[in-house]
Structure formats: C-alpha cells, structure tokens
Amino acid sequence: MKRTEDPEEQRDPIEESEESEELMEVKEESKELREVKEESEELREVKEESEELREVKEESEELSEVEEESEELREVKEEHHVKPGEKPLSRSKTKNTFLKKRKDNKSFTCTQCGKSFACKRNLESHMRVHTGEKPFMCEQCEKRFTDKHSLKRHMRVHTGEKPHLCNQCGNSFSHSASLKKHMRIHTGEKPFTCDQCGNSFSQSSSLKKHMMIHTGEKLFTCVHCSKTFLRASHLKTHLAVHSKEKPHSCSVCGKSFSLLPYLQRHQKIHTGVREYMCFECEKTFTTVNNLKQHQIIHTGEKPYKCSHCDKRFNRSGYLKSHQIIHTGEKPYKCSHCDKRFNRSGHLKLHQIIHTGEKPYKCSHCDKRFSQLSNLKSHERIHTGEKPYKCSHCDKRFSVSGHLKTHERIHRREKPHTCDQCEKSFSIKSHLKIHMKIHAVEKPHHHSLRSHLK
C-alpha cells in the first residue's frame, strides 16, 4: 500500500530557504533595535550624570564664592584691626570697604545695567532679566522662571513643603524670607520708617502702600465707576458692590454677604464675642478697627481736615461724607426708586423701607429693628444705661445723638438756619416747626379758627 505524504513534508526547499532568511533578518532587526534602545538608555544616563555634574559644579562655584567672600571680609577686618587708642571702624564702613574691594575683583559686567558678577554663570543668569528668557518650566502648572533656584522654590507650592520653622510659635513657611518677615511679629521689629510722618512698618510693602497716603497716588481704578483705590484688595472688595453677588449666608438669620470677612464680622452679633477691649474705659469691640476708631475718643485726635472749611474729623470716612456737603454729590442711587444719597450707609438704611427687613430682635421684648444701633439704643430702655455724659454738666444720655444735640446748648451752637428769615436753631426739628410759620398753609391757625367757630 502506497504511503500518503504529509503536505508539510512536500514543501519546496527554495521556500524553506527564503523563510529561513526572513527569520534571520527579523532576528537581526530585533537585535539592532535592542542595541539602539540600550544606546538610548545609556545616552539618557550620561545626560543625567552630566546634569548632576553641572549642578555639583554650580554648587561648588557658589561655595567657592562664599569662601572667597568670607576670606576677603576677614582680610578687610585684619587690615582695619583696631590698635590701642584708635577708634574702631564701624560695621557699615567695614562692609562698604569689603563691597568696594569685592566689586573691584568682579570681572563679568552686564552691558545693559552695569552690574558686575564674580563668575560668568551668574552674569548669564542675570541677563535673562533683560532678555525676558525663562527656560525653566514647572511641569505641574507650566509657569516659567529665569533660574533653576526660583523653580525649586516654586515647586514647594505644589508639594506643600514648608522647611522653614518658627521657633516661637511653630508656624512653618516655604521660603526663608517669609519666615524672616513672620519673626518680626514676635520681635516687634519695624525697620521700615516713613520719612514724612515717622510711622514704622515691619514690611517694605506696607511702607510703600502707606506712602501713597502722602503722595495721593491711587493705582487701582474700578472699571465700572472709575473710583480709585490705594490697594488691589480694596478694589476687589469694592467690585462686589457692582456684582451684586452675595454667596456667604449667615446660618442664624439668613443674611447674605458679598465677602467672607463681612459674614464673619456679622456672626459676632449672634455669638456676642468681643475680644478687643479698650484699656481706658474697658469697652469691648468685635473688630480691631472698631477699637482703634473708639480710642480716638480718648486721645481727642482729629487728623482729617476739610479742604473747603476748617472742620476736622477723627475718621477719614467722616471727612469724605462731610465733603459731599460742599460738592452736593449724591452717587448712591436706590435700585427700587429714584432716590439718591450722599452716603452708602444712608442708601442701605433707605432700602430696608422697600425690603421691610428687621433682623435685630430685642432680648428683653419682642420688638425688632432694621438697624443694630437702634436695637442697642432700645435695649437701654430696659437696662436704664446712659453711657453718654455731657462734658459741661452732669447730664447723661442713652443715645449719642441726644448728647450731641444737648451740648449745642452749652456751645451756643445753632447750625440749622431758616432760609426765609435767617433765624437759627440748635435742633433740626425746631427749624421744621418754625418753617410752618412761613408756609402758605398754616395748619395750626386753621385748626384754631375752626375751634373758635
């Protein structure tokens, strides 16, 4: 019987040879690819080693510079060694002598600004300030930097690393400069002094902002109403007026606020927390600003003078409000009606008429008020408190406005003048009653005549 051959066994020797050659080529290509990959890996390692070597070299150069500076400073001190009977050279003069000597030794000078450097690398890094080149990029947020060290400091924003620890309170900081500024809180150091008024500050930025008060410079302008501000934070706060957004709500009464600090300040009304106390009269306040404003009562200081008249004020806000009397300006318009006001506070009080809101409730009775000041005045009816004493006599008052009106009697002040007969009154309500004499219709006379009939 004839044996049937397997098709595999019947394959052409030429085909087998071709397949064998192809297989060898594939193996060779695979081997070459592996070699290329290995070479690429080796090249990457070489680059990393080169980068590490460059960093070590940079650090070595920096260390060498520090050692040179230290050696030169020591030499300067030795040159100016105090001999018996000689006056010692001041620290600032020693430093200036050292800096002059150091500058003379620097050989790399910037062609743009003339600044000199001890090594070429530092000059190259400095030149990026002029060219605007920022070759070092953060992989997290793509922010760019002129030098590697700035990038390293920036990376702490993403990593959360805070290696600089305050030994007084335990607070930690990402930068040594931030720790240095913070330490002035504990030491009370205020090295930056205003040459106009003598006020001192712990930070140079605070001094710069303060100087704008003297120069009258206002850098930040509102795009909606052209109002200008000394600080960007003040402009940001003001912009909330235009946005009408009030995302922060009080969990107790539901009142909403445009900024979180406003809500936090408001919540102290409900909690009753008053951590700021006046040492003169022991009165307590919810905010440090309210305390500062109150303390002016004891000093009697009125630093803000009107440019139109000789009237002075203890708060800049009072001066601004007063000056509107001279200009006649009423920039605050009610959104519900066409009524306008010269103060934002007056507009807020007016708008309560439309809303009917009365968030302040008396703790002694069920009476409610639209203003906190009205609640405080009302509660004095229950407590009998009269904190406002006349400086001319022993009379006391529960409301500050009543005291002011009363004191006009002693000063013989009559600020309210009739425009018909020029008769003056110390109280506005008395002027209103008097004006009825000049009115065409006289309700008191009519009622008298009808009674006689």
UniProtKB/TrEMBL annotation:
GO MF entry, a single one: zinc ion binding
Keyword tRNA processing appears in the UniProt entry: no
GO cellular component: nucleus
Region (Disordered): 1-98
Domain of life from the UniProt record: Eukaryota
InterPro entries: Snail/Krueppel_Znf, Znf_C2H2_sf, Znf_C2H2_type
Acidic residues bias locations: 58-72
SUPFAM superfamilies: beta-beta-alpha zinc fingers
Subcellular location, principal: nucleus
Subcellular location, record wording: Nucleus
Keyword annotations of the record: DNA-binding, Metal-binding, Nucleus, Repeat, Transcription, Transcription regulation, Zinc, Zinc-finger
Every C2H2-type domain range: 108-135, 136-163, 164-191, 192-219, 220-247, 248-275, 276-303, 304-331, 332-359, 360-387, 388-415, 416-443
Keyword ATP-binding in annotation: no
Residue spans of biased composition, Basic and acidic residues class: 24-57, 73-89
Family membership noted in the UniProt record: Belongs to the krueppel C2H2-type zinc-finger protein family.
Function: May be involved in transcriptional regulation.
Name of the protein this chain belongs to: C2H2-type domain-containing protein
Organism from which the protein derives: Phoxinus phoxinus (Eurasian minnow)
